[in-house]
Write a structure and sequence with these properties.
The complex is a heterodimer of chains A (423) and B (268). Chain A has 423 residues and is mainly α. A 3-stranded antiparallel beta sheet of chain A has the order 2-1-3. Chain B has a domain of 179 residues: P-loop containing nucleotide triphosphate hydrolases (Rossmann fold). Chain B is 38% helix and 24% strand. In chain B, the strands form 2 sheets. A 6-stranded mixed beta sheet of chain B has the order 6-7-8-3-9-10, sandwiched between helices. In chain B, strands 2-1-4-5 form a 4-stranded antiparallel beta sheet, with helices on one face. In chain B, helix 5 runs parallel beside helix 8. Classes of the chains: A mainly alpha (423), B alpha/beta (268). The interface between A and B is medium-sized, with 21 and 30 residues.
C-alpha cells in the first residue's frame, strides 16, 4: 500500500509529459485505424457490387443482340402453294397455318447455301418467313431477300465466342455480306422457347408485373391497416403481444414454406388456377405483409405524440387523427418497408416453384388467371438448360430483372421524397 | 354585498352567476398511483384561472381531465364529477370529440401541424363543418389569426409551413388554431415555458385580450406570470388542491402556510 501511495505523483498533471504524448498518439492511431477499416469495408462491398454488375453486363448485353443470315427466296417456285388473295381478310390465318413454311425455308436454304444450308438458320426461322409473307402478301409473286435469325452456333460465332467450325462458316458468310447483327426484338417481345435463339423475356416480365400488382394490392392495404390497428386502436394485452410476436416470426419464415401454404390453400382448397400470377401474387403477399406491418408500426410509432395531441385537442376523432395526420407523416417509412418487402418478393423463386410457376409457358399471360412465368423463375429455368445459347439469355434476363427492380425502387423513392417534403 | 362594490372581479362573478365548469371530488389514478386527490373547483366565465404548484403536483393532469385528454392514456382513470354548463362531461351521452372542440387546448411545446399556416387554422373548422365554403373559411382563418395577434406577421405567407415560424409565433398559431373552432373554454398547459421573455410577454398580452370571450385555464410554473395574467389562482401540492381564490388574495395574503412557503420560494 505504501509503495502504491508513494508511486502516485502528488505534483500537478503533466499535460506535456512523455506518457501523455504517447496516450494522444495512441488515440489518434486508433481513430485512423477505425476510419481505414470502415473505408475498407465500403470498398469491399462496392467491389462486390461492381464485379456483379460488370460480369452480368458483359455476359448479358449480347443477349439483347442477334445475328441474322440473308436468304433469297424465290416464292413463285417454292413449295408454298398460297394465293395472295387468300391472305386478305378473314381466312388469312387459316391459309397461313395450312402452308408448309418450314419446308419452303428448307428448300430456299439448300438452294442458296448447299445441303447443310438449313443449319445456318435457327429452328424457328420459318416463323420469320411466315411473318414476312403475312405482312406483305405480294412477296408471293416474286423473288425476295429476307433476313432470318441465325442458328445458335452462328449467332455465338458472330459474337466472337463460337467454335472453330462455326467461326469459319460465319467468316465466309460475313465476307459475302450475308450475316448481320441487330437488336434482338424477339428477346424483348417473345416468351419462353426450347430454341435459345427464339426465346423472349416479355412473357416472364409481364408475369412478374402482374404478380407484383396482385402482391401490392393485397399486402399494402392489409399491412398498413394491421399496423394502424395495432398501434392506434388495439389494447395492450396478452393477445396483442402474441399477435406481435407472431407477425415478427412470420417475417422470418423461410419463403418455401409460404409456397407450401399457397399450394395447400390457394390451389388445393380454393382451386385457383395453377401457375397463375393471381396465385403467385397471393402467396408473395403472405410473405410481404409482415414486413410492411413491422415497418408500418415503426413508422407510426415515430410520429411525434404532440401531433396526435394537437389534433385530438381541437376535437378530431381517432380516425381523423390517423388519416389526416399520422398516416401522411408515417407514409415515407411505410413506403420504405414496402420497397424492401416488394423487392424481396420480386426476386423470390422458391414459393413460386411450389405453386407451379415453373411450367414451360410459351405465350405471355393475357390476364391474372393465365399461366405465366416470372423473371427469377425464368432465370432459374434458363440457367438449367444445357444449350450454349441460353448462357447469354440467362444473363440478359438477370439484367432485365435488375432493371425492373431499379425501376420499382426508383418509383418508391420518388414517392417517398414527395411525401417527405410535407414535414 | 359590500365586497361587490369594492372588487370588480367579484362583480364579474356575480354577473356570470353560474360557473362555466365545476369539478367535484375529482381524483385521477395512473394505474395504482393517485395523481390527483379529491379536487373540487369552479372555473368562471371571462376569467383567467391559473393553476400553480411544484412539478409533479398533478396540476397538468387535472387540467387534462377538463377536456378528457386523459382518455388517450390507457392506464388513467378519473373519479368524481366534472360539469361543463351543468352537463357531466364523463357521461356516456357526452360526445368527447365535441367536448374537445368546446374545451380547446394549447400545449406546453408549440405543436403546429406540419402543414401550411392556413391549413393549421382551417383544420378545426373544416372537420367540424363550421364553414360553408372557401370564402367563409378564409374569414374564420383571418379572424382567428387576428385574435391570436399573428395576422400581420403571416398574412403574406399563409401557404408556408407552420413549422417554419419561430417558437413564439408557433405558439400563437396554436392558439389561433384552438380559437378557430370557437371554443367556450381554453386550457393552456404551460403555454410560455418553452419561449423567450419577449414571446412570453406576447402570449400573456394575448391571454389578457382573449379573456373577454373565453374562460381560460392556464397551468404555469412562473408565479409572476400567474400573478400578471390571472384573476383566480389555484395552488396544487402533491395532488391536492391546497388553496383556491382570487389571485391578489393568494399572492398577498395566503391562508395556508404551504401556499405561503411556495410563493415565497421556500420550495418548489
Amino acid at each position: 500500500m505504501t509503495d502504491m501511495a508513494a508511486s502516485i505523483d502528488p505534483s500537478p498533471t503533466d499535460w506535456n509529459g512523455e506518457a501523455m504524448r504517447r496516450r494522444i498518439r495512441r488515440r489518434y492511431a486508433a481513430e485512423r485505424r477505425f476510419k481505414l477499416l470502415g473505408l475498407a469495408a465500403i470498398l469491399v462491398s462496392a467491389g462486390f457490387l461492381a464485379f456483379l454488375l460488370v460480369t452480368m453486363f458483359s455476359n448479358g448485353i449480347s443477349g439483347f443482340a442477334r445475328s441474322e443470315v440473308r436468304l433469297d427466296v424465290d416464292f413463285p417456285r417454292s413449295s408454298l402453294f398460297l394465293d395472295p388473295a387468300a391472305l386478305e381478310g378473314f381466312g388469312a390465318d387459316q391459309a397461313l397455318a395450312g402452308a408448309d413454311f418450314p419446308e419452303a425455308l428448307n428448300e430456299a436454304a439448300q438452294a442458296q447455301y448447299g445441303d447443310s444450308g438449313r443449319s445456318l438458320f435457327s429452328e424457328g426461322a420459318w416463323i420469320g418467313l411466315r411473318d414476312a409473307v403475312r405482312d406483305d402478301p405480294s412477296l408471293l409473286g416474286r423473288r425476295a431477300t429476307l433476313w432470318l435469325p441465325a442458328s445458335t452456333a452462328i449467332d455465338i460465332a458472330a459474337k466472337g465466342e463460337g467454335e472453330a467450325e462455326a467461326e469459319r462458316l460465319k467468316a465466309r458468310l460475313a465476307e459475302a455480306g450475308r450475316v448481320r447483327t441487330g437488336i434482338n426484338w424477339t428477346f424483348l417481345r417473345g416468351s419462353d422457347s426450347t430454341d435459345p435463339s427464339a426465346v423472349g423475356i416479355w412473357g416472364a416480365f409481364k408475369g412478374s408485373l402482374l404478380t407484383m400488382i396482385v402482391t401490392l394490392l393485397i399486402a399494402f392495404p392489409i399491412g398498413v391497416l394491421s399496423a394502424v390497428y395495432l398501434e392506434e386502436y388495439a389494447p395492450r394485452n396478452r393477445w396483442t403481444d402474441m399477435i406481435e410476436v407472431s407477425i415478427n416470426n412470420l417475417a422470418a419464415v423461410p419463403s418455401i414454406i409460404f409456397g407450401l401454404l399457397g399450394l395447400a390453400i390457394f390451389l388445393n382448397v380454393m382451386h385457383l388456377p395453377r401457375s397463375a400470377p393471381l396465385v403467385g401474387g397471393l402467396t408473395l403477399a403472405l410473405m410481404t405483409m409482415p414486413v410492411i406491418v413491422i415497418a408500418g408500426r415503426n413508422a407510426i410509432k415515430s410520429v411525434p405524440p404532440s401531433i396526435r395531441d394537437a389534433a385530438l385537442g381541437i376535437g378530431a376523432s381517432r380516425i381523423q387523427v390517423v388519416f389526416h395526420h399520422v398516416l401522411p407523416l408515417a407514409l415515407p417509412g411505410i413506403l420504405t418497408g414496402t420497397i424492401i418487402g416488394m423487392a424481396r418478393a420480386l426476386g423470390e423463386t422458391a414459393p413460386l416453384l411450389m405453386i407451379g410457376m415453373r411450367a414451360f409457358v410459351a405465350a405471355p399471360p393475357g390476364g391474372f388467371a393465365d399461366p405465366a412465368s416470372v423473371l427469377p423463375v425464368q432465370i432459374f429455368l434458363w440457367s438449367d438448360e444445357v444449350s450454349r445459347g441460353f448462357v447469354e439469355k440467362t444473363s440478359a434476363a438477370i439484367i432485365v430483372l435488375l432493371v425492373f427492380l431499379l425501376a420499382m425502387n426508383g418509383l418508391a423513392i420518388y414517392l417517398r421524397n414527395k411525401f417527405e417534403r410535407r414535414w | 354585498m359590500a365586497d361587490m362594490i369594492q372588487s370588480p372581479i367579484q362583480a364579474a362573478d356575480a354577473a356570470a352567476s353560474s360557473p362555466k365548469m365545476t369539478a367535484r371530488g375529482v381524483s385521477v389514478f395512473y394505474g395504482e398511483k393517485k395523481a390527483v386527490d379529491d379536487v373540487s373547483i369552479d372555473i368562471h366565465r371571462e376569467h383567467v384561472t391559473a393553476f400553480i404548484g411544484p412539478s409533479g403536483c398533478g396540476k397538468s393532469t387535472f387540467l387534462r381531465t377538463l377536456n378528457r385528454m386523459n382518455d388517450t392514456i390507457g392506464s388513467a382513470r378519473v373519479e368524481g364529477r366534472i360539469e361543463l354548463d351543468s352537463e357531466d362531461i364523463y357521461a356516456s351521452s357526452m360526445d368527447v370529440v365535441q367536448l374537445r372542440a368546446r374545451v380547446g387546448m394549447v400545449f406546453q411545446k408549440p405543436n403546429p401541424f406540419p402543414k401550411s399556416i392556413f391549413e393549421n387554422v382551417a383544420y378545426g373548422p373544416r372537420i367540424h363543418g363550421l364553414a360553408a365554403g372557401k370564402a367563409e373559411l378564409d374569414v374564420i382563418v383571418e379572424r382567428s389569426l387576428r385574435r391570436a395577434g399573428l395576422w400581420d406577421e403571416v398574412k403574406d405567407r399563409l401557404a408556408e409551413s407552420g413549422t417554419a415560424l419561430s417558437g413564439g409565433q408557433q405558439q400563437r398559431l396554436c392558439i389561433a388554431r384552438a380559437i378557430a373552432v370557437d371554443p367556450e373554454v381554453i386550457l393552456m398547459d404551460e403555454p410560455a415555458s418553452a419561449l423567450d421573455p419577449i414571446a412570453t410577454a406576447r402570449i400573456e398580452e394575448l391571454i389578457h385580450e382573449l379573456r373577454g370571450n373565453y374562460a381560460i385555464v392556464i397551468v404555469t410554473h412562473n408565479m409572476q406570470q400567474a400573478a400578471r395574467v390571472s384573476q383566480r389562482t389555484a395552488f396544487f401540492h402533491l395532488g391536492v388542491l391546497v388553496e383556491y381564490g382570487e389571485t391578489s388574495a393568494i399572492f398577498t395574503n395566503p391562508r395556508e402556510t404551504r401556499t405561503k412557503d411556495y410563493i415565497t420560494g421556500r420550495y418548489g
